[in-house]
Design brief:
CATH class: Alpha Beta
Number of helices: 6
CATH topology: Rossmann fold
Order of helices and strands: EEHEEHEHEEEEEEHHH
Number of domains: 1
CATH architecture: 3-Layer(aba) Sandwich
Distance between the termini: 31 Å
Shape: globular
Length: 244
Amino acid sequence: MQTLRKHGRRWPYARHVPKPVLIRQHVESAPAGLLGEWLDARDIASELDRTWIEPTVPDPERYAWIASLGHDRMAGDLHDPAVAAERELLSRAVDRGVPVLGLCYGGQVLASVLGAEVGPAPVAELGWRTIETDDPELVPAGPWLEWHFERFCTPPAATEIARTADASQAYRIGPHLGVQFHPEATVEIVAEWAEADAPALARLGLEPDLSASAEQRAAARNAAFRLFDGFLARIDQMPQRFAI
């Protein structure tokens, strides 16, 4: 099922955005959040696929680029039709040169498509983090909200551009960007995940701190907008037909 948002004015970086952006939302509790706010602020049209309702594999060439959001499933859960559909869609997107922005689970699926190992994280990263970044114009240091029990390795031929002491945090290859954190998430969104994961957190003895001042929330929103702007600017600076 798709929801189309149409906007009239185009942002200056939108040379490669005559088509809508495809947002792949995989669970009701993991919406586009700040990414949706950014799309509205930049007057960029988008379509929303709710993959848990209808795990379709649309033609990626209908879209300017694809954003794959978070999930409570893992990238290797290919017995789940929606996970299998996401892998197929991102495989087709990579093959056809359609840029992909992978956020946490989406970054893990993209990494797997690109030949990287994805598996259990040695340390679950939950709550606020700042990261070490080699490219702060594209991926700022944060603050970022994280919520993952799995992690990706950097795909072959990709460049790791951010990390923490516990996991790789971002990679880029051609027009594609995968991140392990959640630039789209707000405190309210992650608090809902924490409530759902409360039994698992209790078993692990974890009590993530999601508290944030108004200044920290504003800084996270600003960092997210910088990341999305940087991703789109990078696409705009590349040839229209992408290849890796």
